[in-house]
Inverse folding.
């Protein structure tokens, strides 16, 4: 227990020593790390410190889950300008603990330093529970493509916030705090998923990584993507295309996976396409016009 916060059973030794000790039931640890920079990945005039803290943990644990693993722990590196209010740091930590709790993980340690800008680095850990990791490279022609989670909501929220609005709360909240389907990764692994990925940069962009790693093509059927009425309403108000948000919008951290047949697709997953002869990703059999999603190292 730390300041009244209870660690999960996987935490054998929590904060207070030089390092934590986290259980690895089958001797393997799934690890991932991400860095969030104020003004690039979050804005404190758009989100509370608690929301930023939750988001920083969620985006990292989603990567662990996308390997078919069960989240166990997070380590946090926090760099703050000297004038940062204590309430901001406390809010960030409260949000991190809350999101870790939702995923069944614990915050087991970290470090804090001063810096010119607010930067959050989170390392997420998980275990495979005796299963093989589900990588990006296992998709095979004839597999079905499915997803679990939300698509397009965070992009809609970003569009709303970018216009200076703070509602509808549902889509704005999706941008502030993603909701990865934490249990779905291990569920897909147990069901025999052949490949899987966290949708962080946009459905088409991230499916492109699977296509490249697997040496196949992926075709998305647009009619299989059911557009929620809330997205339709927001898109109508902003003069935007809600399907574009679902295909290319990032930061929802849903999961996309391929399965060897319809009987293997778990409950809660939606089939949206298939694995075809490569290369690349298509929509309804044709290349998608425009950017497929966020490109971290785009060359203009």
């Amino acid at each position: 227990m730390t300041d009244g916060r209870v660690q999960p059973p996987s935490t054998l030794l929590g904060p207070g020593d030089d390092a934590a000790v986290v259980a690895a039931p089958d001797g393997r640890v799934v690890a991932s790390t991400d860095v969030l920079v104020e003004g690039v990945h979050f804005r404190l005039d758009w989100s509370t410190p608690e929301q930023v803290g939750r988001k920083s943990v969620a985006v990292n644990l989603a990567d662990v889950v996308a390997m078919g693993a069960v989240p166990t722990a997070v380590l946090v590196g926090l760099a703050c300008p000297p004038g940062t209010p204590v309430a901001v740091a406390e809010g960030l930590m409260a949000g991190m603990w809350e999101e870790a709790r939702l995923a069944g993980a614990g915050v087991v340690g970290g470090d804090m330093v001063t810096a010119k800008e607010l930067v959050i680095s989170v390392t997420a850990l998980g275990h495979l529970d005796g299963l093989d990791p589900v990588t990006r490279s296992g998709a095979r022609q004839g597999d079905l493509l499915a997803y679990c989670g939300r698509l397009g909501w965070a992009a809609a929220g970003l569009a709303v916030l970018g216009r200076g609005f703070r509602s509808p709360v549902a889509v704005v909240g999706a941008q502030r705090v993603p909701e990865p389907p934490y249990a779905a990764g291990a569920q897909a692994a147990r069901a025999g998923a052949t490949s899987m990925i966290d949708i962080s940069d946009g459905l088409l962009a991230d499916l492109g990584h699977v296509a490249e790693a697997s040496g196949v093509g992926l075709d998305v059927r647009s009619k299989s993507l059911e557009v929620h009425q809330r997205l339709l309403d927001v898109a109508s108000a902003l003069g935007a295309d809600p399907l574009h948000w679902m295909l290319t919008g990032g930061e929802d951290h849903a999961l996309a996976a391929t399965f060897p047949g319809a009987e293997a697709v778990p409950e809660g997953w939606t089939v949206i396409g298939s694995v075809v002869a490569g290369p690349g990703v298509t929509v309804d059999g044709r290349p998608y016009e425009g950017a497929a999603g966020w490109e971290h190292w785009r060359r203009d």
Remarks:
- The chain is about 30% helix and 25% strand.
- Residues 86-103 form the longest helix (18 residues).
- The longest strand covers residues 70-80.
